[in-house]
């Protein structure tokens, strides 16, 4: 039988990313992400909440981006898989285990504090991210080029710059269904 090892979380960083660089130049970023469940107790009507903390490991280019842009409190969407590491505690000699999320893709959510402008749904990862709304891949996607600018001497006079009058909208059928396709399969 096939198996699936996939994790998707949306939460907030509990502290700034912990960055490490290996001699090869590869970077690793470790973060803790909090997810909170909120509900109303049926018996007492009291609001309750439970917070889970998740260790997340980012590698390579993803780690660089996490180190550069994420801070404590940043809201983030992460897709990845569970990994369990085993090591021997040097102080006690006991074997220890840690289960972590190895991030495959990440998308920053919330506002861009201190970066000016509003949020522009951008994420990083191996695929297009969450949906296809501009996920970060190996390199950030570029925005469409701006409209060409004219040199100051070539600018139009105020009379020439006035917008052309708009044409009247096309006439619609009384039923309002004139633009619908007739090839409905049922």
Describe this entry's structure for a reader.
With 186 residues, the chain is mainly beta. The longest helix is centred in the middle third of the chain and has 10 residues, at 60-69. The chain is globular, with a radius of gyration of 26 Å. The chain has a 5-stranded mixed barrel with strand order 1-3-4-6-5. The protein has helices at 60-69, 158-161; strands at residues 7-13, 18-21, 27-40, 47-59, 75-88, 95-109, 123-125, 135-136. The model is unreliable at 114-122 and 126-161 (pLDDT under 50).
Radius of gyration: 26 Å
Please outline the major beta sheet.
Answer: 5 strands, mixed, barrel
Report the uncertain regions. Answer: 114-122, 126-161
How do the helices and strands follow one another from N- to C-terminus? EEEEHEEEEH
Tell me the β content: 35-45%
Q: How confident overall, as mean pLDDT? A: 75
Indicate the overall shape: globular
Number of helices: 2
Report the end-to-end length measured between terminal Cα atoms.
38 Å
Helical amount: under 10%
Report the strand count.
8
Structure summarized in a few sentences:
The chain has 186 residues and is mainly beta. It has two helices and eight strands; from the N terminus they run ββββαββββα.
Supply the key terms:
186 residues; 2 helices
What is the strand and helix layout of this fold?
Layout: E1 7-13, E2 18-21, E3 27-40, E4 47-59, H1 60-69, E5 75-88, E6 95-109, E7 123-125, E8 135-136, H2 158-161
Parallel strand pairs: 4-6, 7-8
Antiparallel strand pairs: 1-3, 1-5, 2-3, 3-4, 5-6, 6-7
